[in-house]
Amino acid sequence: MTGRPRGVWRIRSGAALAVLLIAAAARAQIVNELELERPLTMEDAHPLPYRAVSSSVDWTSNWREGRNDYGPGFSFTYGLARALEVGAAVRYVSSPDVNATRGISSGDLNLHALYGITPETASLPALAFRVGVEFPTGLDSKGTDLRLGGLATRTFGAVRLHANFGWTRLGDTGPTERKDRLEGVAGFDVITSPRGVTDTLLLGDVVVRTNPVRDAETIVTLEAGGRFRIGSRTVFFAGMGSDVTGSHDRAKFRLRAGITYVF
């Protein structure tokens, strides 16, 4: 009579352990998933898992020497296939007429695809390729833009290092604007718990990008932030940054906060 209860106990214990492992993996995934601009510029080289769906909303405020601006952003991402995600995003800012001259759109529709070229191994980083198109659906928009980028992510224990590179070809520019723009990002994220629990992730990066205005100083941005799990499928994120070089009307301080829900 003792063999049957012992067997049942083993089955239940194994099932409970499997549930815990699956829950831990899901929790790690939604916190570690670094979506572009949520909350920092950097993005990791791991596409959203197959058939997973992620939706985000945030609010961003920029304090400038010129006119301050603020507004919401929305995004939707879907794991279309294994190692392939597709998504759409839109961001609105106040004073769209002024921001258009800074190279900042308001209400333009951004579509993207992120393909994982190789997964991370013990000796090599994860590599991914990103392609995006920005359509002039917003206010004071001027043309359709093409964006291409490469991403790399390397893990060292609780720390991950990220490198992003992007090239943008603008469909329409003014006489003083650059038609081709480059961007490079170097950053990291780190799990704060000594037990490896990924409820909290701290982030930081440095962004170097071409100034939208010809012959103007290169823009260098410093950013820091975090992602915090507040539910089984919900992540709160917040970040801040500052353009330390660039035009006179650059963002002296930027604050962004929002919510991501994965299902």
Describe, in short, the structure shown.
13% of the residues lie in helices and 51% in strands.
Describe this protein's structure:
The chain is mainly β and 263 residues long. Helix content is 13%, strand content 51%. It contains two helices and twelve strands, in the order H-E-E-E-H-E-E-E-E-E-E-E-E-E. The chain has helices at 3-32, 96-100, and strands at 53-64, 69-81, 84-91, 109-118, 126-135, 145-156, 159-169, 180-191, 200-209, 219-229, 234-245, 251-262. A twelve-stranded antiparallel barrel has the order 1-2-3-4-5-6-7-8-9-10-11-12.
Set out the fold topology.
Blueprint: H1 3-32, E1 53-64, E2 69-81, E3 84-91, H2 96-100, E4 109-118, E5 126-135, E6 145-156, E7 159-169, E8 180-191, E9 200-209, E10 219-229, E11 234-245, E12 251-262
Antiparallel strand pairs: 1-2, 1-12, 2-3, 3-4, 4-5, 5-6, 6-7, 7-8, 8-9, 9-10, 10-11, 11-12
Largest sheet: 12 strands, antiparallel, barrel
Mean pLDDT: 87
Strand order of the largest sheet: 1-2-3-4-5-6-7-8-9-10-11-12
| Helix count, DSSP H or I runs of 4 or more residues | 2
Unreliable runs = 13-28
- The portion of residues assigned to helices is 10-25%
* Secondary structure: number of strands: 12
The separation of the N and C termini measures: 44 Å
Features:
13% helix; 263 residues; 12-stranded antiparallel β-barrel; mainly beta
